[in-house]
Amino acid sequence: MTILGLGDFNVSLVFILLILSTLLCVIYGIVRWNEDGEDAKISGKEKQWDKEEKNIEETL
């Protein structure tokens, strides 16, 4: 059985799955393009710690 003229069903299936996975990755990237990651979310304690660290570095 031949799909897409590639000779074997398994080869055709791999080719189709490759294209579908590529499209899925592109769509996922477009949807999540401008979302902030975990690193962008800084808690109040971390902000305070950053300020204290900068003050210590300035005094040294």
Task: Write structural notes for this entry.
The model has no long low-confidence stretch (mean pLDDT 83). The protein has a domain at 1-34. The longest helix has 23 residues, at 9-31. It has helices at 9-31, 44-59. The radius of gyration is 25 Å and the shape is rod-shaped. It is an all-alpha fold and 60 residues long.
Secondary structure layout plus pairing:
Blueprint: H1 9-31, H2 44-59
Features:
rod-shaped; mainly alpha
Briefly say what this structure is.
This protein is 65% helix and 0% strand. The protein contains two helices and no strands.
Terminal residue distance: 75 Å
The helix/strand class is: mainly alpha
Strand/helix succession: HH
Contiguous helical run count: 2
* Overall outline: rod-shaped
The helix fraction, in percent, is 55-70%
Largest sheet: none
Gyration radius, to the nearest Å? 25 Å
Compute the number of strand runs.
Answer: 0
State the low-pLDDT regions, or none: none
Strand content: under 5%
Q: Averaging pLDDT over every residue, what do you get?
A: 83
